[in-house]
Amino acid sequence: MKPTLKKLNSLVVLFVISIGLGFAQQIKVRGIVKDQSGQPLPGATVQVKGSTVGTITDAEGAFTIGAEPGAVITVSYIGFVTQENKVEGNRFLSIVLTEDAQKLDEVIIVGYGTQKKVNLTGAVGVVDADAIESRPVQNAFQALQGVSAGMNINYTNGGLLNARPDINIRGIATIGEGSTGNALVLIDGMEGDLNSINPQDIESISVLKDAAASSIYGSRAPFGVILVTTKKPQSKEAAVINYSANFRFATPVNLPTMMDSYSFATYMNDANNNAGWGNVFNEERMQRIWDYQHGIITTSTIQDPNSTKWGDGYDYGNDNIDYYQVYYKQWAPTQEQNLSFSGGKNKTTYYLSSNYLNQNGFIAYGEDRYTRFTTSAKINTALKDWL
């Protein structure tokens, strides 16, 4: 019997050691991702190569990810060259991404005209149609989040479904805490609202970030300029029809956890006794709340015929309700439909599109819904050869 017990103890010790080694292999790697000018890159994708473990950088370009020693971490960002970093003894990675040289020949819209990206002297961020169309968003503001370095989009208006956020370029610290300045938004050369257009109609977005914007747009552009170019008609022999449907569901996150009614009553009594005011809930009320929580009684309220007070929950209420579960939906569906026609030849080309969006909010009571229907039409025709 004794050798058997000794063997069993050895197996247990080895099993515990193997578990400890298994957990020790996983380490936390922290880091920050910036561009060549030192600006943080929010929304950059950080992933352990060859696995499904990944995360994205926050507004300051920082990230934390779990990886094994020797693993390779890849960092990618739209418009930049993907970089790989091996995890060895380094627990903190300072990563500087360089712009993709293959995209330096792209034509960028900069106010009065266009320039090749390689010839630009000002700070300009560009978001193309592919980056916008691949994201399940209901407006262009959300499409811009995390795709242009140095641009912060903040919602400070209570969570309305069609709310217009504050746009800050180059960081809050650049212009001072609490500034209410917003970037100037121009849609095909005219001032507009990004909420009013269909994201699928956008060809490209240029973000002018520095003083070069003020040299063109003057006092309207101290906080930067966002230039939106919508899709233009293309000359093709046959008409091109595009249709897309998107159905998605959202759920509220980080909702507070409500205290149960018996614990609440206990804390209230403790607080009042510490202040010398006595109990708020007497023993009979405390017992009633306890019995309701444990199913001994099923009546959520009681009636006192001798009382002249109405609606006193402390006196008559036994219920234990999580109001966050009552007033918030577990799931909120959204549907979006897009249809576009483009084509034409010789002297006339056209582009027609329609978009329907039906988004439901998280509030369970009242009208918490946003519906949008947009239509866009562009027709180019040459009436005379000399025009």
Description:
This protein has 387 residues and is of the alpha+beta class. Helix content is 20%, strand content 34%. The protein has 9 helices and 20 strands. A hairpin with a 2-residue loop joins strand 18 (332-345) and strand 19. The radius of gyration is 30 Å and the shape is extended. The N and C termini lie far apart (105 Å).
Which strand order do you get reading across the main beta sheet? 10-15-16-13-14
Q: How many helices does DSSP assign?
A: 9
What summary fits the major beta sheet? 5 strands, mixed
Mean pLDDT across residues = 78
Strand content: 25-35%
Work out the radius of gyration: 30 Å
> Judging from the principal axes of the Cα atoms, what is the shape?
extended
- Under CATH at level 1, the class of the largest domain stands as Mainly Beta
Q: For this entry, what is the oligomeric state of its chains? A: single chain
| Separation of the first and last Cα atoms | 105 Å
Map the helices and strands:
Elements: H1 2-24, E1 27-34, E2 45-48, E3 54-56, E4 62-67, E5 72-76, E6 83-86, E7 92-96, E8 107-110, E9 113-116, E10 124-128, H2 129-133, H3 140-144, E11 151-154, E12 166-169, H4 172-175, E13 184-187, E14 190-191, E15 202-208, H5 211-217, E16 225-230, E17 236-250, H6 261-274, H7 283-293, H8 313-316, H9 323-327, E18 332-345, E19 348-360, E20 369-381
Parallel strand pairs: 1-7, 13-16
Antiparallel strand pairs: 1-4, 2-3, 2-5, 5-6, 8-9, 10-15, 11-12, 13-14, 15-16, 17-18, 18-19, 19-20
Helix pairs in contact: 6-7
